Amino acid sequence: MGRDGRGEEGLPLFETKVGKKSRVAYRIFGFTVFIGICVIWVYRLTHIPAAEQGRWAWIGMFMAELWFGFYWIISLSLRLNVTYRYPFKHRLITRYGDKLPAIDIFVCTADPKIEPPTMVINTVLSAMSYNYPPEKLSIFLSDDGGSEFTFYALMEASQFSKHWIPFCKKFRVEPRSPAAYFSQNFNHQDSTLAQEEWLATKKLYEGMKFRIERATEMGSISKEVKDQHKGFAEWNSQVTKQNHQSIVQILIDGKNPNAVDDDGHQLPTLVYLAREKRPQWPHNFKAGSLNALIRVSSEISNAPIILNLDCDMYSNDSDTIKETLCFFMDEEHGHKTSYVQYPQSFNNITKNDIYSNAFNTVNMIEFAGMDGFNAAFYLGTGCFHRRESLCGLNYSENYRGDLNSVCDIRKDRTIYELEEGSKVLANCSYEADGTRVWVSGGRHHNRIENCMQGMEAGVLLSTEQKGLCGDCSNHIRSSSCSVQEVSSLWLLPFAYVYLARNACSIAESLACGDTLAAWWNLQRMWLIRRTTSFTFAFIDTIIRQLGLSETAFAITAKVVDEGVSKRYEQEMMEFGSSSVMFDIMATLAIVNLFGSVGGIVKIVWEMDESLIMQIVVCWLVVMVNVPVYQGMFLRSDKGGFPTSVVLKSVVVASLACLMMPVY
């Protein structure tokens, strides 16, 4: 019986808890900060200087402070509604047993040179090894690079899975990515693991990895290997990354009773897909890949729940699927859930998170606050979708649906018939005629947004065990528009807002598991992002909205050399390339350094106390940029700034100071 007297059958499959303890404190704190912001607004409106004394700069500061006030209200509203959800997978198993729905898992990759095939198959193997009935799992690998090396790697993985899946189940392996698992320090004397079997499985994995990497490095696959599977016949001298026919190969047919692992248990379905690409047809990058996956999977498996993963985000918890289904299959609220999003987590974060990639505060507070408004972000990976919501079903309060009612679309069709039928659905013409779920930029198509109105669009599931893992300028302009003199009472609201906001930020960061150094690194990365990548993204968005350019898609390189890895482990920032982003970063750092030194000289020689607080602020920016100065002037390794970037930044900063003197 449950605590409320109800039997186990009547209890919900998940629990929602709202963080009420911190609400009162946040309200009081937020109100005082907002009062400080309002006082700053009053100061700006009542002390507008004459035109010749920097009026436009003053107005610019006022607009920035207006925006900060708006941002503060939004940010505070999230913190007042932090919501956490806890699934009860044991209730799900007890209630539904073997009546759990089928799951389609999409893994996307695009270039074997940037995204190594060995990394891709580790994600695939982790998905194949979920603690879930294998006959209800179908894994689809979308290869937008159309590479036979990726296909070869998947073929090798299909063979290795016969050993890996039983090994995972026997010894309850976590995580179930072979690379992540075997990289852990393990005590062979542990009685729960047979040392010989552990070593044998690792040897099989290392052998598979060696063969894949050797073939990729050599740039060719031997005839003996190609003779092992008919799928290699799809590649010839005419096939290129941007010009090839649809390729669909079912490497493991989960419906075939002979497709079993070493223990005689059924294997999951495994499918390779390279959608058709032609130079004259738009392909819409990853969005087009996901569209093709939805169409092809509807032909082969048509599972009601879809999980999409990037090729570098492996499963970190084998029970993730069962925990997720608690939200879709809950009798009272399940029909309102369109998708369940897992926060992105990474396994190689350094102690002080030099690049601020962990996003602990964002995941645990801000995203949880958005979830409290039923507005969980779709992050592009690590998300479970209801197929019906993706395919245009209009929401109805009375419609409950049955996740097990999907008809058997395969019937008596052969593998050949399924592959040929799927090739038609992977045709490039689909991206041109508007039959799309995703559009360029990674967002849902309008018809999907329409059909989800009324639904709890999605929930954010952040458990203690991570479900999925991977791997503005503040320099001084003029004394008339910055911080007040030390002796002025108008300094108080500026100082309070600044100190209070940062004190709150530090407290949140520490509460979420960050170190103080990690918080400081986060301030640096926010400064860098806001003055470079965020600015470029804003400009690019405006240009695209005006129809002056088209969306571009850049693949993030997943290959890192040994030197870069070593410097990362030592928490040394990497600046060793030439780009506009690094030019801006270095130039702003030099301008702030020049301004700080010039300000101190002016204070010493002229005894002008009106500049003291401005210099303090400017020196804070200089302190944040210490790693940038080190990369420019002190480091001799390959991670330092190129000489050309240093020279350009010094010249541009010098010209800026001469043309617009600060003092």
From TrEMBL:
<feature type="binding site">
    <location>
        <position position="286"/>
    </location>
    <ligand>
        <name>Mn(2+)</name>
    </ligand>
</feature>
<feature type="transmembrane region" description="Helical">
    <location>
        <begin position="611"/>
        <end position="629"/>
    </location>
</feature>
<feature type="transmembrane region" description="Helical">
    <location>
        <begin position="641"/>
        <end position="662"/>
    </location>
</feature>
<feature type="transmembrane region" description="Helical">
    <location>
        <begin position="56"/>
        <end position="82"/>
    </location>
</feature>
<dbReference type="InterPro" id="IPR005150">
    <property type="entry name" value="Cellulose_synth"/>
</dbReference>
<keyword id="KW-0472">Membrane</keyword>
<feature type="transmembrane region" description="Helical">
    <location>
        <begin position="580"/>
        <end position="605"/>
    </location>
</feature>
<dbReference type="GO" id="GO:0016760">
    <property type="term" value="F:cellulose synthase (UDP-forming) activity"/>
</dbReference>
<feature type="transmembrane region" description="Helical">
    <location>
        <begin position="24"/>
        <end position="44"/>
    </location>
</feature>
<feature type="binding site">
    <location>
        <position position="310"/>
    </location>
    <ligand>
        <name>Mn(2+)</name>
    </ligand>
</feature>
<keyword id="KW-0961">Cell wall biogenesis/degradation</keyword>
<comment type="similarity">
    <text>Belongs to the glycosyltransferase 2 family. Plant cellulose synthase-like E subfamily.</text>
</comment>
<keyword id="KW-1133">Transmembrane helix</keyword>
<feature type="binding site">
    <location>
        <position position="144"/>
    </location>
    <ligand>
        <name>UDP-alpha-D-glucose</name>
    </ligand>
</feature>
<feature type="binding site">
    <location>
        <position position="115"/>
    </location>
    <ligand>
        <name>UDP-alpha-D-glucose</name>
    </ligand>
</feature>
<dbReference type="GO" id="GO:0000139">
    <property type="term" value="C:Golgi membrane"/>
</dbReference>
<keyword id="KW-0808">Transferase</keyword>
<comment type="function">
    <text>Thought to be a Golgi-localized beta-glycan synthase that polymerize the backbones of noncellulosic polysaccharides (hemicelluloses) of plant cell wall.</text>
</comment>
<dbReference type="GO" id="GO:0030244">
    <property type="term" value="P:cellulose biosynthetic process"/>
</dbReference>
<keyword id="KW-0333">Golgi apparatus</keyword>
<keyword id="KW-0812">Transmembrane</keyword>
<dbReference type="Pfam" id="PF03552">
    <property type="entry name" value="Cellulose_synt"/>
</dbReference>
<dbReference type="InterPro" id="IPR029044">
    <property type="entry name" value="Nucleotide-diphossugar_trans"/>
</dbReference>
<keyword id="KW-0328">Glycosyltransferase</keyword>
<dbReference type="GO" id="GO:0071555">
    <property type="term" value="P:cell wall organization"/>
</dbReference>
<protein>
    <recommendedName>
        <fullName>Cellulose synthase-like protein E6</fullName>
    </recommendedName>
</protein>
